[in-house]
Amino acid sequence: MSENEQNTANQEAQGPQFSVQRVYIKDASFESPNSPAIFTSPWQPEVGVELNSSTTKLSDTAYEVVLTITVTVKNDDKNAFLVEMHQAGIFAISGIEGPELNHTLGAFCPSILFPYAREAIDSMVVKASFPALMLAPVNFDALFAQQMAQKQAQAEEQQH
After folding, report:
1. 99 and 145 in contact (C-beta within 8 Å)?
2. Which of 5, 44, 68, 81 allows an S-S link to 52, with CB 3.0 to 4.6 Å?
3. Class of residue 55 by CB neighbours under 10 A (exposed 0-12, middle 13-18, buried 19+)
4. Is the pTM of this model over 0.90?
5. Cβ–Cβ contacts within 10 Å for residue 21, how many?
6. What are the pLDDT digits (tens) for 34-57?
7. Is 67 exposed, middle or buried (0-12, 13-18, 19+ CB in 10 A)?
8. CB contact at 8 A, 58 and 64
9. What angle do CA 30, 35, 39 make, to 5 degrees?
């Protein structure tokens, strides 16, 4: 048995492998276009949150997943602030393929990144002199399932 065949056999015997290699902020921005005037209004915020994720394959077993969160807060119909956070991670994954790999990259990895992004966003908001903004937990499994259902429905529409 060659060394490559033996390594492959060892990996298969070990089963699926997953590890977090690195978690980092890839990009962050904060804008408060109506300050300081926004601080003089009674604080009754309207919060909008957008979530997206993307994946880049770095090697056969390494993937970068970037969770992008955009938070827009309006007060009295004026933009109080806008925060955009690109929280990224490098994940080592082997022995996971097909739909399971897609689920891991599309739901499991973003759920690992979310608490880091939430803390970074909250920190930026507080440092800008606004009240703390602790984003509610997100069910990435449900979002992933919804996204897959939409893709399947679109594929079925194109076939008809």
Report:
1. no
2. 68
3. middle
4. no
5. 12
6. 999 999 989 999 999 999 999 999
7. buried
8. yes
9. 115
